[in-house]
Amino acid sequence: MIGIKLFRITGFLEGISLLLLLGIAMPLKYLFNAPEMVQITGMIHGLLFLLYIAFVFVFKYKKKWSYLTLVFLVLLSIVPFGTFYADTKYLKKSTA
């Protein structure tokens, strides 16, 4: 059974990977012509993003979240620091 703790860890890692991608890898690519960092970080972020989205759909049904919550959590996954907000607002209270 998939636990909420694994979902929270995935959200945290997805948020960190997005920040690394936007804050470090992309500037390195465009300022110093180093596309390798984007390839590596982008792949890791992409996998974590897909896993996070899968968790959102799984827990939508497990926790009986509304479709509005589902859409909000999906949108937060593409905003820098969004998964951290999602963790605080939706996931942290689910573990209590």
Can you offer a commentary on this structure?
There is one protein chain. The chain is mainly alpha-helical and 96 residues long. The protein has one domain. It is 83% helix and 0% strand. The protein is built from four helices and no strands. It has helices spanning 4-32, 36-62, 67-76, 82-95. Helix 1 (4-32) packs antiparallel against helix 2. The chain is elongated and about 45 Å long. The mean pLDDT is 93.
State the domain count. 1
Largest sheet: none
Say how many strands there are: 0
- Apparent shape: elongated
From the alpha carbons, calculate the radius of gyration and give it in angstroms. Answer: 14 Å
Euclidean distance between termini CA atoms: 18 Å
Poorly predicted runs of 5 or more residues? none
Mean pLDDT: 93
- What is the helix content? over 70%
Query: Strand content of the residues, in percent?
Result: under 5%
Helix-strand makeup class: mainly alpha
**What letter string, H or E per element, gives the SSE order?**
HHHH
Instruction: Give the count of helical stretches.
Output: 4
Briefly say what this structure is:
The chain has 96 residues and is mainly alpha-helical. It is built from four helices and no strands. The mean pLDDT is 93.
Summarize this structure as a short list of keywords or feature phrases:
single chain, 96 residues, mainly alpha, 0% strand
Explain the layout of strands and helices.
Layout: H1 4-32, H2 36-62, H3 67-76, H4 82-95
